[in-house]
Specification:
Blueprint lengths: L1 H21 L4 H39 L6 H42 L5 H32 L4 H36 L1
Length: about 190
């Protein structure tokens, strides 16, 4: 998911750079393209870093499950370790989904500012950002599902699940509206 978002950011950066090079007259437009390109590169770097963080978070879940537990106290500690690992395993893809939403927004900006001949690249950037966001949201949801099973009765953990769920719902709602609008604009541009 993070890699899909990084690819999207890379495409948006490319469209911004191509459009910047072709723009001869409009200083404000060149400045806007430059800013979009810089933000795209920053988001791309962040998402590439998150590819590794997501792997490490999953590894923490697996490590927690491998903890030996022979006594009730050890079982309680193991369960706490698994819960904390699942929290991390949900937090990383949540961050990915939020960054993919930003990348999706950038794809819309390059669709507006970019040269017409790069419209198909902007369109692919939008679809890749949305795919990354969806994939990350699936990962958040599956990890929260497991976390809820373990957190029964623990108010703090259940509040954490509700908080993450609310953040994810907000991101998903914004993304659905944004991609629907972008798809209409893409269809109009491509004819």
């Amino acid at each position: 998911s993070a890699l899909a978002g990084a690819l999207s950011a890379g495409l948006s950066s490319m469209v911004a750079a191509l459009s910047f090079a072709k723009e001869k007259d409009g200083i404000p437009r060149r400045e806007a393209l430059e800013k979009v390109g810089e933000r795209a590169q920053f988001l791309k770097s962040s998402l590439v870093r998150l590819v590794d963080e997501d792997t490490l978070a999953f590894d923490k879940v697996m490590e927690a499950f491998r903890i030996k537990a022979g006594t009730p106290a050890e079982e309680k500690e193991k369960t706490r370790s698994v819960i904390e690992a699942y929290k991390l395993a949900a937090a990383v893809p949540l961050e990915v989904s939020e960054k993919c939403l930003s990348v999706l927004d950038l794809a819309g900006e390059v669709l507006t500012l970019g040269i017409d001949s790069a419209c198909s690249d902007s369109s692919v950037a939008a679809q890749m950002a949305y795919a990354g966001l969806l994939g990350a949201s699936f990962n958040v949801r599956i990890n929260l599902k497991e976390l809820k099973k373990l957190a029964t009765g623990n108010k703090s953990d259940l509040n954490h699940v509700r908080s993450v769920t609310a953040r994810l719902k907000k991101v998903s709602t914004q993304a659905s509206k944004l991609i629907a609008g972008l798809n209409r604009r893409i269809a109009a541009k491509l004819g």
